[in-house]
Write a structure and sequence with these properties.
Layout (H helix, E strand, L loop, with lengths): L1 E4 L10 E4 L9 E11 L1 H7 L16 E9 L11 E4 L9 E5 L3 E3 L6 H5 L2 H14 L7 E4 L5 H12 L3 E6 L2 H9 L4 E4 L6 H7 L5 E6 L3 H7 L3 E9 L12 H7 L2 E4 L2 H7 L1 H17 L6 E6 L3 H9 L6 E5 L3
Parallel strand pairs: 8-9, 8-11, 9-10, 11-12, 12-13, 14-15
Antiparallel strand pairs: 1-2, 3-4, 3-6, 3-15, 4-5, 5-7
Helix pairs in contact: 3-4, 3-10, 9-10
The protein binds NADP nicotinamide-adenine-dinucleotide phosphate.
The site of NADP nicotinamide-adenine-dinucleotide phosphate has 30 residues, from helix 1, helix 3, helix 4 and helix 9.
Protein backbone atom coordinates (compact mmCIF):
# COMPACT_ATOMS: atom_id res chain seq x y z
CA UNK A 1 0.00 0.00 0.00
CA UNK A 2 0.98 3.66 -0.40
CA UNK A 3 1.89 5.52 2.78
CA UNK A 4 3.78 8.58 3.97
CA UNK A 5 6.90 7.47 5.86
CA UNK A 6 9.05 9.27 8.43
CA UNK A 7 12.61 7.87 8.46
CA UNK A 8 14.23 10.68 10.48
CA UNK A 9 13.10 13.84 12.25
CA UNK A 10 12.61 16.98 10.21
CA UNK A 11 10.10 19.19 8.40
CA UNK A 12 7.31 17.79 6.15
CA UNK A 13 9.71 17.90 3.16
CA UNK A 14 11.74 15.21 4.93
CA UNK A 15 8.92 12.65 4.64
CA UNK A 16 8.62 10.22 1.72
CA UNK A 17 5.69 8.56 -0.03
CA UNK A 18 6.44 4.84 -0.30
CA UNK A 19 4.99 1.43 -1.05
CA UNK A 20 4.98 -0.49 2.23
CA UNK A 21 3.38 -3.80 3.25
CA UNK A 22 -0.20 -3.74 4.56
CA UNK A 23 -0.21 -3.79 8.38
CA UNK A 24 -1.03 -7.06 10.17
CA UNK A 25 -4.19 -7.16 12.23
CA UNK A 26 -3.58 -8.31 15.80
CA UNK A 27 -6.06 -9.47 18.42
CA UNK A 28 -8.47 -6.69 19.40
CA UNK A 29 -7.69 -4.62 16.30
CA UNK A 30 -9.40 -3.85 13.01
CA UNK A 31 -7.94 -3.02 9.59
CA UNK A 32 -9.38 0.09 7.98
CA UNK A 33 -9.32 1.07 4.31
CA UNK A 34 -8.62 4.76 4.80
CA UNK A 35 -10.80 7.17 2.82
CA UNK A 36 -9.63 10.35 4.55
CA UNK A 37 -7.00 11.24 7.14
CA UNK A 38 -7.41 14.22 9.47
CA UNK A 39 -4.23 16.23 10.07
CA UNK A 40 -3.41 18.04 13.29
CA UNK A 41 -0.73 20.40 14.55
CA UNK A 42 0.79 17.59 16.67
CA UNK A 43 1.63 15.69 13.44
CA UNK A 44 4.12 18.43 12.64
CA UNK A 45 5.63 18.14 16.13
CA UNK A 46 5.86 14.36 15.92
CA UNK A 47 7.70 14.27 12.59
CA UNK A 48 10.11 16.88 14.01
CA UNK A 49 10.78 14.77 17.14
CA UNK A 50 9.14 17.31 19.44
CA UNK A 51 6.02 15.48 20.59
CA UNK A 52 5.26 13.72 23.85
CA UNK A 53 4.86 10.40 22.01
CA UNK A 54 7.59 9.46 19.51
CA UNK A 55 7.22 6.10 17.74
CA UNK A 56 10.35 4.25 16.55
CA UNK A 57 11.51 4.78 12.93
CA UNK A 58 10.26 4.19 10.35
CA UNK A 59 6.71 5.26 11.07
CA UNK A 60 3.74 6.63 9.18
CA UNK A 61 2.31 9.76 10.82
CA UNK A 62 -1.42 10.48 11.03
CA UNK A 63 -3.42 10.23 14.25
CA UNK A 64 -6.98 10.04 12.93
CA UNK A 65 -8.81 8.60 9.95
CA UNK A 66 -12.19 7.72 8.52
CA UNK A 67 -12.81 4.74 6.27
CA UNK A 68 -14.30 1.28 5.96
CA UNK A 69 -13.38 -1.77 8.03
CA UNK A 70 -11.83 -4.41 5.76
CA UNK A 71 -10.74 -6.96 8.39
CA UNK A 72 -11.64 -7.68 12.00
CA UNK A 73 -9.12 -9.17 14.44
CA UNK A 74 -9.71 -11.98 16.88
CA UNK A 75 -11.81 -10.98 19.88
CA UNK A 76 -13.51 -8.00 18.22
CA UNK A 77 -17.24 -8.51 18.57
CA UNK A 78 -18.81 -5.08 18.16
CA UNK A 79 -17.42 -4.03 14.76
CA UNK A 80 -17.94 -5.56 11.31
CA UNK A 81 -16.28 -5.68 7.91
CA UNK A 82 -17.87 -3.05 5.66
CA UNK A 83 -18.74 -0.66 8.48
CA UNK A 84 -18.08 3.09 7.98
CA UNK A 85 -15.97 4.25 10.89
CA UNK A 86 -13.78 6.98 12.29
CA UNK A 87 -10.72 5.89 14.21
CA UNK A 88 -7.87 7.22 16.33
CA UNK A 89 -4.91 4.94 15.57
CA UNK A 90 -2.42 7.50 16.97
CA UNK A 91 0.00 6.87 14.11
CA UNK A 92 -0.29 5.31 10.64
CA UNK A 93 -3.20 7.42 9.39
CA UNK A 94 -1.42 8.92 6.38
CA UNK A 95 -1.61 5.79 4.27
CA UNK A 96 -4.07 3.61 2.37
CA UNK A 97 -4.65 1.20 5.25
CA UNK A 98 -4.21 1.38 9.00
CA UNK A 99 -4.77 -0.92 11.95
CA UNK A 100 -6.42 0.42 15.06
CA UNK A 101 -7.47 -0.89 18.46
CA UNK A 102 -11.20 -1.61 18.28
CA UNK A 103 -11.72 0.54 21.37
CA UNK A 104 -10.51 3.57 19.38
CA UNK A 105 -12.98 3.03 16.53
CA UNK A 106 -16.51 4.46 16.27
CA UNK A 107 -19.17 3.90 13.61
CA UNK A 108 -19.89 7.18 11.82
CA UNK A 109 -23.32 8.81 12.00
CA UNK A 110 -25.15 8.24 8.67
CA UNK A 111 -25.10 11.86 7.59
CA UNK A 112 -21.40 12.42 8.32
CA UNK A 113 -19.13 12.04 5.29
CA UNK A 114 -15.60 10.59 5.45
CA UNK A 115 -13.86 13.95 5.11
CA UNK A 116 -15.76 15.40 8.06
CA UNK A 117 -15.40 12.24 10.13
CA UNK A 118 -11.62 12.09 9.58
CA UNK A 119 -11.23 15.47 11.25
CA UNK A 120 -13.83 15.11 13.98
CA UNK A 121 -12.32 12.96 16.71
CA UNK A 122 -9.27 14.77 17.98
CA UNK A 123 -10.37 18.41 17.97
CA UNK A 124 -13.90 17.93 19.31
CA UNK A 125 -12.69 15.16 21.63
CA UNK A 126 -10.04 17.43 23.13
CA UNK A 127 -12.32 20.42 23.46
CA UNK A 128 -15.26 18.59 25.03
CA UNK A 129 -12.87 17.03 27.57
CA UNK A 130 -11.34 20.46 28.25
CA UNK A 131 -14.62 22.32 28.71
CA UNK A 132 -16.67 19.59 30.37
CA UNK A 133 -14.47 17.46 32.59
CA UNK A 134 -11.61 19.90 33.17
CA UNK A 135 -13.20 23.39 33.29
CA UNK A 136 -16.74 22.34 34.20
CA UNK A 137 -17.96 25.22 32.07
CA UNK A 138 -21.40 26.46 33.17
CA UNK A 139 -24.15 28.05 31.12
CA UNK A 140 -23.91 31.84 31.40
CA UNK A 141 -20.14 31.85 31.99
CA UNK A 142 -17.75 33.67 29.68
CA UNK A 143 -15.39 31.45 27.70
CA UNK A 144 -12.32 32.95 26.01
CA UNK A 145 -10.81 30.76 23.27
CA UNK A 146 -7.33 31.53 21.95
CA UNK A 147 -6.36 30.34 18.47
CA UNK A 148 -10.13 30.28 17.96
CA UNK A 149 -10.14 29.44 14.25
CA UNK A 150 -7.74 26.48 14.55
CA UNK A 151 -8.92 22.88 14.86
CA UNK A 152 -9.08 22.62 18.64
CA UNK A 153 -10.04 26.30 19.01
CA UNK A 154 -13.01 26.24 16.62
CA UNK A 155 -14.33 23.08 18.26
CA UNK A 156 -14.13 24.89 21.63
CA UNK A 157 -16.05 27.86 20.21
CA UNK A 158 -18.90 25.62 19.01
CA UNK A 159 -18.99 23.55 22.19
CA UNK A 160 -18.89 26.67 24.36
CA UNK A 161 -21.99 27.95 22.58
CA UNK A 162 -23.69 24.57 22.83
CA UNK A 163 -23.11 24.68 26.62
CA UNK A 164 -24.65 28.14 26.90
CA UNK A 165 -21.50 30.19 27.43
CA UNK A 166 -20.82 33.67 26.09
CA UNK A 167 -17.88 32.95 23.78
CA UNK A 168 -15.08 35.42 23.10
CA UNK A 169 -13.05 34.16 20.14
CA UNK A 170 -9.49 35.44 19.93
CA UNK A 171 -7.18 35.02 16.92
CA UNK A 172 -4.40 36.75 15.03
CA UNK A 173 -6.29 37.99 11.94
CA UNK A 174 -9.73 39.28 11.03
CA UNK A 175 -10.24 36.53 8.44
CA UNK A 176 -9.60 33.91 11.13
CA UNK A 177 -12.03 35.71 13.44
CA UNK A 178 -14.68 35.73 10.70
CA UNK A 179 -14.59 31.90 10.72
CA UNK A 180 -15.04 31.88 14.50
CA UNK A 181 -17.99 34.26 14.13
CA UNK A 182 -19.61 31.99 11.54
CA UNK A 183 -19.28 29.16 14.07
CA UNK A 184 -21.08 31.02 16.82
CA UNK A 185 -18.61 33.30 18.63
CA UNK A 186 -20.35 36.21 20.40
CA UNK A 187 -17.35 38.53 20.60
CA UNK A 188 -14.15 38.76 18.59
CA UNK A 189 -10.68 39.82 19.73
CA UNK A 190 -7.85 40.29 17.25
CA UNK A 191 -4.58 39.78 19.14
CA UNK A 192 -2.48 40.31 16.03
CA UNK A 193 -1.27 43.60 17.57
CA UNK A 194 -0.08 41.71 20.66
CA UNK A 195 -2.85 43.01 22.92
CA UNK A 196 -5.19 40.39 24.36
CA UNK A 197 -5.56 41.33 28.01
CA UNK A 198 -6.99 44.86 27.70
CA UNK A 199 -9.46 43.88 24.97
CA UNK A 200 -10.81 40.95 27.00
CA UNK A 201 -11.09 43.12 30.12
CA UNK A 202 -13.02 45.70 28.11
CA UNK A 203 -15.49 43.06 26.90
CA UNK A 204 -16.02 41.72 30.43
CA UNK A 205 -16.48 44.96 32.41
CA UNK A 206 -12.99 44.57 33.79
CA UNK A 207 -13.67 41.13 35.29
CA UNK A 208 -12.01 38.83 32.78
CA UNK A 209 -13.21 35.49 31.39
CA UNK A 210 -14.44 32.63 33.60
CA UNK A 211 -12.75 29.98 31.47
CA UNK A 212 -9.80 30.48 29.11
CA UNK A 213 -9.01 27.74 26.60
CA UNK A 214 -5.37 28.10 25.51
CA UNK A 215 -3.92 25.89 22.75
CA UNK A 216 -1.29 28.57 21.92
CA UNK A 217 0.86 29.31 25.00
CA UNK A 218 3.74 31.80 24.88
CA UNK A 219 3.06 35.47 25.54
CA UNK A 220 -0.69 35.03 25.04
CA UNK A 221 -0.83 32.70 28.01
CA UNK A 222 0.92 35.28 30.14
CA UNK A 223 -1.75 37.82 29.15
CA UNK A 224 -4.51 35.28 29.72
CA UNK A 225 -3.41 34.88 33.33
CA UNK A 226 -4.13 38.61 33.72
CA UNK A 227 -7.65 38.60 32.25
CA UNK A 228 -9.14 35.65 34.14
CA UNK A 229 -12.15 36.24 36.39
CA UNK A 230 -12.36 35.42 40.09
CA UNK A 231 -12.58 31.61 40.46
CA UNK A 232 -11.72 31.27 36.75
CA UNK A 233 -10.10 28.23 35.10
CA UNK A 234 -7.20 28.53 32.64
CA UNK A 235 -7.00 25.45 30.42
CA UNK A 236 -3.50 24.46 29.32
CA UNK A 237 -4.18 22.74 25.98
CA UNK A 238 -1.10 23.29 23.82
CA UNK A 239 1.82 25.43 22.74
CA UNK A 240 1.51 26.20 19.03
CA UNK A 241 3.44 29.44 19.63
CA UNK A 242 6.47 27.24 20.26
CA UNK A 243 6.96 28.56 23.80
CA UNK A 244 5.94 26.79 27.00
CA UNK A 245 5.16 29.71 29.31
CA UNK A 246 6.01 30.09 32.98
CA UNK A 247 3.16 30.77 35.41
CA UNK A 248 3.42 33.47 38.08
CA UNK A 249 1.61 31.65 40.87
CA UNK A 250 0.84 34.87 42.74
CA UNK A 251 -1.80 35.50 40.04
CA UNK A 252 -3.57 32.25 40.98
CA UNK A 253 -3.65 33.48 44.57
CA UNK A 254 -4.94 36.94 43.65
CA UNK A 255 -7.67 35.65 41.29
CA UNK A 256 -8.60 32.57 43.30
CA UNK A 257 -8.30 30.85 39.94
CA UNK A 258 -7.10 27.43 38.77
CA UNK A 259 -4.57 26.38 36.16
CA UNK A 260 -6.01 23.19 34.67
CA UNK A 261 -4.06 20.76 32.49
CA UNK A 262 -5.77 19.03 29.56
CA UNK A 263 -4.31 15.75 28.26
CA UNK A 264 -6.96 14.13 26.10
CA UNK A 265 -4.84 11.11 25.08
CA UNK A 266 -4.18 10.12 28.70
CA UNK A 267 -7.83 10.80 29.59
CA UNK A 268 -8.96 8.32 26.90
CA UNK A 269 -6.67 5.65 28.32
CA UNK A 270 -7.50 6.29 31.96
CA UNK A 271 -11.24 7.01 31.68
CA UNK A 272 -12.44 5.12 28.59
CA UNK A 273 -16.07 5.03 29.66
CA UNK A 274 -16.27 8.82 30.16
CA UNK A 275 -14.46 9.28 26.87
CA UNK A 276 -17.05 7.08 25.09
CA UNK A 277 -19.84 9.14 26.68
CA UNK A 278 -18.18 12.28 25.35
CA UNK A 279 -18.10 10.81 21.83
CA UNK A 280 -21.79 9.92 21.99
CA UNK A 281 -22.59 13.42 23.21
CA UNK A 282 -20.60 14.90 20.33
CA UNK A 283 -22.51 12.76 17.83
CA UNK A 284 -25.81 13.97 19.33
CA UNK A 285 -24.72 17.60 19.12
CA UNK A 286 -23.68 16.99 15.50
CA UNK A 287 -27.06 15.41 14.68
CA UNK A 288 -28.84 18.38 16.31
CA UNK A 289 -26.84 20.78 14.16
CA UNK A 290 -25.05 22.39 17.14
CA UNK A 291 -21.69 21.29 15.71
CA UNK A 292 -20.82 22.23 12.15
CA UNK A 293 -17.36 20.75 11.53
CA UNK A 294 -15.42 23.00 9.17
CA UNK A 295 -12.93 21.41 6.79
CA UNK A 296 -11.18 24.39 5.20
CA UNK A 297 -8.81 22.46 2.93
CA UNK A 298 -8.47 18.98 1.49
CA UNK A 299 -5.39 17.60 -0.28
CA UNK A 300 -4.82 14.27 -2.05
CA UNK A 301 -2.46 11.94 -0.16
CA UNK A 302 0.35 12.77 -2.61
CA UNK A 303 0.26 16.42 -1.48
CA UNK A 304 1.07 15.62 2.15
CA UNK A 305 3.91 18.19 2.26
CA UNK A 306 1.63 21.09 1.31
CA UNK A 307 -1.04 19.82 3.70
CA UNK A 308 1.29 19.64 6.72
CA UNK A 309 2.84 23.00 5.88
CA UNK A 310 -0.56 24.63 6.36
CA UNK A 311 0.03 24.02 10.10
CA UNK A 312 3.70 24.92 10.03
CA UNK A 313 2.84 28.23 8.33
CA UNK A 314 0.12 29.14 10.86
CA UNK A 315 -2.57 29.00 8.18
CA UNK A 316 -4.83 26.20 9.44
CA UNK A 317 -8.50 27.06 9.87
CA UNK A 318 -10.88 24.41 11.10
CA UNK A 319 -9.60 21.10 9.75
CA UNK A 320 -7.13 20.12 7.04
CA UNK A 321 -7.81 16.66 5.62
CA UNK A 322 -5.99 14.30 3.24
CA UNK A 323 -8.30 12.46 0.86
CA UNK A 324 -6.90 8.97 0.35
CA UNK A 325 -9.56 7.13 -1.73
CA UNK A 326 -13.09 8.00 -2.99
N1 LIG B 1 -3.91 18.81 25.33
C1 LIG B 1 -4.35 17.90 24.48
O1 LIG B 1 -4.82 16.83 24.88
C2 LIG B 1 -4.31 18.21 23.02
C3 LIG B 1 -4.98 17.42 22.07
C4 LIG B 1 -4.93 17.81 20.73
C5 LIG B 1 -4.19 18.93 20.35
N2 LIG B 1 -3.53 19.64 21.32
C6 LIG B 1 -2.76 20.82 21.01
O2 LIG B 1 -3.64 21.86 20.63
C7 LIG B 1 -2.93 22.78 19.83
C8 LIG B 1 -3.76 23.12 18.62
O3 LIG B 1 -3.79 22.04 17.71
P1 LIG B 1 -4.62 22.17 16.35
O4 LIG B 1 -4.44 20.90 15.62
O5 LIG B 1 -5.95 22.70 16.64
O6 LIG B 1 -3.75 23.33 15.63
P2 LIG B 1 -4.14 24.41 14.53
O7 LIG B 1 -5.38 24.00 13.83
O8 LIG B 1 -2.92 24.69 13.75
O9 LIG B 1 -4.50 25.71 15.40
C9 LIG B 1 -3.54 26.28 16.21
C10 LIG B 1 -3.74 27.77 16.36
O10 LIG B 1 -2.60 28.25 17.07
C11 LIG B 1 -2.36 29.58 16.69
N3 LIG B 1 -0.92 29.82 16.61
C12 LIG B 1 -0.24 30.76 17.30
N4 LIG B 1 1.05 30.75 17.00
C13 LIG B 1 1.23 29.77 16.08
C14 LIG B 1 2.35 29.30 15.36
N5 LIG B 1 3.58 29.81 15.55
N6 LIG B 1 2.17 28.28 14.49
C15 LIG B 1 0.96 27.73 14.30
N7 LIG B 1 -0.17 28.16 14.95
C16 LIG B 1 -0.03 29.17 15.83
C17 LIG B 1 -3.05 29.81 15.35
O11 LIG B 1 -4.03 30.82 15.54
P3 LIG B 1 -3.69 32.38 15.44
O12 LIG B 1 -2.91 32.62 14.19
O13 LIG B 1 -5.03 32.97 15.42
O14 LIG B 1 -2.90 32.71 16.69
C18 LIG B 1 -3.75 28.51 15.04
O15 LIG B 1 -5.09 28.71 14.61
C19 LIG B 1 -1.58 22.13 19.53
O16 LIG B 1 -0.60 22.69 20.39
C20 LIG B 1 -1.79 20.69 19.85
O17 LIG B 1 -0.61 20.04 20.22
C21 LIG B 1 -3.59 19.30 22.63
Amino acid sequence: MKAVVCQSYGPPENLTLEQIPDPDVAQGQVLIDVHAAGLNFPDTLQIAGKYQFQPPFPFTPGAEVAGVISEVGEGVTDLNVGQRVMALPGIGGMGERVVCKASEVDPIPDRMDFTTAAGFGMTYGTSIHALKQRAQLQSGETLLVLGASGGVGLAAVELGKAYGARVIAAASTDSKLEIAKQHGADELVNYGDGNLKDKVKELTDGKGADVIDDPVGGDLFEQATRCINWKGRILVVGFTSGTIPKYPTNLALLKGCALVGVFWGAFRQREPQVSRENTQELFKLFEKGDLKPYVSQTFPLEQYVAALNVFVNRQAMGKVVLTVRD
